[in-house]
Amino acid sequence: YFVLSLLEDSGYLPRLAVFLDNIMHRIGLHGYAIIPTLLGLGCNVPGIMATRILETRTQRFITATLISIAVPCAALQAMIIGMVGDRGIWPLIAVYGTLFIVWFLIGIILRFTAKGLRPELLIEIPPYRLPSLRTLAAKVWMRISGFLKEALPIIIGAILVVNILYQFKLFEYLARFAEPVVTRMWGMPREAIAPLLLGILRKDVAIGMFAALGLTTRQLIIGSVMLSIFFPCIATFVVLFRELGIKDGLKSL
Description:
Elements: H1 2-10, H2 12-19, H3 21-25, H4 34-40, H5 44-49, H6 57-70, H7 74-83, H8 89-113, H9 133-167, H10 170-185, H11 193-198, H12 203-209, H13 217-229, H14 234-252
C-alpha cells in the first residue's frame, strides 16, 4: 500500500499504466490492470479486491483470475527466494520465468474466451510532484484499515473452516486422489503431497515443509511452481467468489 500510494502521489502511477498498456492489451486488459496485479504481489486478497477499479466485469474477471493463479504473494515469494535461491540463480529464474509464462498464456486464452467489453485506456497524465508525507500516511492507513475491515473476518473464518476439515481427516482422502498426479506426473515423492495440500491454508508454510524432504533442484522447482498455481489459498478463494460471484468464481478456478 505504501509503494502504491507513493507511485500514485508522485504522478508516476498513470505513467506506469500507459507504459504497460500495450503489454496488458495482449491479454485483454489495459494498463490500469497493473495496479491490482502489483497489490497481488503483496497479498492476493487486496489485489483481487482492487480489481474494482477496472471498468468492466470481463476485465475484473481476467485480472482476478491471473492474480489467483500466477501472482505469488510476498510470504510465498520470500520462501521461494530463500529455498530455491539457495540452489542458485538459474533455478530461481526457472520458477519466476515459468510463472510469468503461465500468467501470459492464461491471459491470452482469457482474452479470446472471456466475452465482454474491453474499453481503451483514457487517462490524464499529471505532472511529477513530491508526495506529502502526511497525505501519504493518511492514504496508507485508509487502505490498510479498509482491507482489515473487509478481509480479516473472511480470512479468519476461512482458516477456521479449513482447520475443522483438517481435523476430520478430509486431507487424507484428498491425498489418495492426488498421489498418482504428484508422484507420476510431477515426479515428486509421496511425502510432498501433505505440503501441497497444506498450501490451501498457507502456501509459504508448505514451501518450508519441502526442506525436510531432501528434494532435488528439479523437484523443488516443480513443487514451487505447482504450489503457486494449482489452487489459491483459502482466503483468496473466498474473496475470489465474493468479488466475482459463484458462476465466475467457478470459471476462474
